[in-house]
C-alpha cells in the first residue's frame, strides 16, 4: 500500500518524522511525505488561490524524495494528489500533531482539514494528534498506530478517523474509546491590550472548559484514553430539508410577488 | 432583533454594504457589522492565534459604529461575540459573498466558516452568496433576503442555512430549491510553470465539473434556482462508531501487548 503523510506543524516537525520512521521500520508500506515547509497551525481548511506554490525536495531515504510545500496542509494534499506530485495514495495520515484536535476545534485544525481534503479526493484518511503542547514523545503513539495499521487499512475504506493520543507517557494511557465529537467551549477568549501608540488590540487565547458529556472525544482525552472518532464529510442537515421545503418550495410564487 | 453581518470579501465590499442598506430600509432590526478589513477569501475556518487583532471603527450611520478587524472571518465572529465588541446577536448573516459557496467547497469558504463559527457559539446563522464572480448586482438578493427575513428568524433557531443566489438578473431566476450539499469536483487543478530563476511553481486553478446528481445545491444553481441548504455542525459519522468499537474497545488489551 502507498501511504501519504502530511501535517500542519511543518515538514521537519518531530511528529511527522517520528511517524515516518516508525512506519518504515514496522510496516512494509510505501511512504510519501508532502507537508508544509513551515508551521501552519489553526489554518483550518484554507487553500492558496492567489499565490503560486513552491515545492522543495528533501532526501527521505536512499531512493525517495519528500516534498515541502509553501502552502497550507490542504494545499499539500491537493498538490500531492491532483498535481501529480506523487502517485495516488491508498491512505492519508495527517500528523502526528503537537496538541489535541477535539470537538468543534476540528474546524480550525489544519491537521484535520488536510485529512478531510483526502476524503474529498476519495482517499480514506487519518488525523492523528498528541493531546498536549508540551509533551513531545511521539514514539509510543507512532508505534501504536503502526501496529494497528494493517487492520485500519483493511476496514477503513472511506471517511476520516480522528485519533487523539493522551499527552502523557504510555504507562498512564487508560485504554481506547471510540467517541463522537464534543463541543469545545472556551472562556476568556480575548485579552484586550493597548499598544505603545495607544491603539487597542486583542489576543485570542482562553481555556477550554471541560466537556462532561458522555462518549465525547474531549471526555475520553480528559480521562487519558486514546480517542478515535469516525468522521464524514457531509455537513448537510438532512432533517432540516423538509421543513424548509414546505416554506420555500411552495413560495416560489414569492419570486413574482415583488421580490 | 439584533443581526450581526460579516463576510470574507472585506468590510467595504459591495455585497455586505448592499445587504446592510437593504436590511436597514426594509426591516426594523438592529444591524451590526464586524468584518475583515480586507478580502479573506478561501481562508476556510482559520483563526488568528499568533498575532494580535486590531479593530478599526467606521461610521455605520448617525448613531452606530461598524468594526473592521485585521483577521479572518472566523476571528471577526469570535471577537464580536466572545470579545464583547457588540451585544450577542440573535442572528448572524455572512455575505453577500461575490462567488458561489457550494458542495464540498464550503470547507474552504470563509463565508460559510464565519457562519459556522456563529453556530458553534450558539447563534443561528446564514451564509449568503451570489454565484458568479463577475455579476455584481447584489440588490435583488439582498432584497429577497430582507423580505423573507422575519419568517427565517421565526423558524431558524439553530444551525446554518447556506443560501446561494443565481449570478444572473432576477428575471432569469427559476425559483427556490431546498437542497443538500453536492460534491464539487475540479479538473486541471494545478498549472505548473517555471520562474525566471528556473524554479518550478504551481498555480491552483481548474474548472468545476458539473454535478448532475439530483437535489444538490450545485445542480440547483446550474439550473438558475436559488439554493438553500440546511447545515449542521457535527462531523461525527455516527454509523461508523459501532464497527470501530468492536475492534478498538475489545482490543484494549493490545495496549499491554507490547504496544
From TrEMBL, chains A, B:
Residues 3-187 form the Survival protein SurE-like phosphatase/nucleotidase domain. It catalyses: a ribonucleoside 5'-phosphate + H2O = a ribonucleoside + phosphate. Its cofactor is Mg(2+); a divalent metal cation. Its main location: cytoplasm. InterPro entries: SurE (IPR030048), SurE-like_Pase/nucleotidase (IPR002828), SurE-like_sf (IPR036523). The keyword Metal-binding applies. Its EC number is 3.1.3.5. It is found in: Cytoplasm. Binds 1 divalent metal cation per subunit. Pfam families: SurE. One of its GO terms (cellular component) is cytoplasm. Transmembrane segments: none annotated. HAMAP family: SurE. Belongs to the SurE nucleotidase family. This is 5'-nucleotidase SurE.
